[in-house]
Every structure is written in structure tokens, then in C-alpha cells.
Design goal:
Blueprint (H helix, E strand, L loop, with lengths): L2 H8 L19 H10 L17 E5 L4 E4 L8 E5 L5 H14 L11 E2 L2 H5 L1 H11 L9 E4 H11 L8 E5 L5 E5 L5 H18 L1
Parallel strand pairs: 4-5
Antiparallel strand pairs: 1-2, 1-5, 3-6, 6-7
Amino acid sequence: MRDTQISAITAVPKPRRGRRLLLVALGAGLVAATLAANGCSTTIPSRDPTGERFPAVVGQSLEKERTEMPGAFAGRPAVLLVGYKQGTQFDLDRWLLGLMQAGVDAELVEVPTIPGLVPTIASGWINDGMRSGIPREDWGSVVTLYGSAAKPVAELTGNENGRRSRVIVLDAEGTIVWFDDAGYSARKALEVAELVASLASEAG
């Protein structure tokens, strides 16, 4: 389900506990991606949300903990990685590895984002499938969004060219200060690392 991604994670040192890279991402598994294709049939034009506040949404981690975003990351910068199709996994893996190698020091949470009624009904089954492919110690860093909770995120970035990850950097107040949906590059990963370090310094 996420074998490639897990291999990438274990290949490099993880950031210290409590300051992990935040990844908001659909594509945590093939099951989720399949349902996403059915549940997110409306194409929303892609847009750059830089300068906007990330919408208030509530998800649940794979540890079954309620997580409010962006409130859960208040007071510190966060990096979000959003995807909408199974094919996003390749770009997601590259971003994940590249950001970690670049030394990005922020919260690490993946959030599968799946609009639609069918995925909402099947959310428990989907989450169980994700747990089977993710080490237990990483369950707290995966927060799922379904249905009405996922819709504001899709509307925020648009879901055209769904194979590309949406990379979002939030400041300490939850405002989007950097956005990219053109695909991974090492240069951009370093840019994100520098920005996050600057934001962290400002947040004190």
C-alpha cells in the first residue's frame, strides 16, 4: 500500500519527536485512492491559495484521535502535502524524501483527503487498510479527511492535474505562505527548508 513511501522514510533520519514534517496527503494507500476516484468526481480548477488561511477542518488520526487543523499546529510552521489520485504517490514519495533530506523541521502528519459520500461511509474500512501498511509508530502522523471535511481542502487548491502533490507551507497562525502544485524538485525542497527555518525563528 505504501511500501515505497515507508522505504523512503526509513532510508533517512527522522526529524526529532515533536517537530515533524506535516504532510496533508491523499494516496496513503491503494484502497483510499480507488475510492477517491469515485468520491471526488467533480473537477475543481487548480488555484494558488497563498495568503489565505487554511480552512478549519477536523480529521481523525490512525490512532483514532480527533485532530483539528490548522489549530493542531498553532504556534509553529507546518508543511502540508496534498494529493487527490493514486498516481500522486510517486510525487508524494519524492517530496517526502526530498523535504526530509533538506532538513525540514516541522510537524510530520499525512492526511488522506477524500471528498465524497462513498469514502465517508467506508472510512473505517479504508483506515484499517492504511494501518495494515503503516508502522504503528507512524499512525499518529496520518490524519484522514473524508466527505465534508475533505471538501474545503479540495476547493482550496483545486484538484486538476490530480497526479501532482499540493505542497502548502503554513505559518504559526495557519496562513498559507508558500504553495506549489507543479511537481517535486530538489531546489524547491531546499526553498521550503529555508522558509520553515525562518518561520520557526520568527515564531520563537
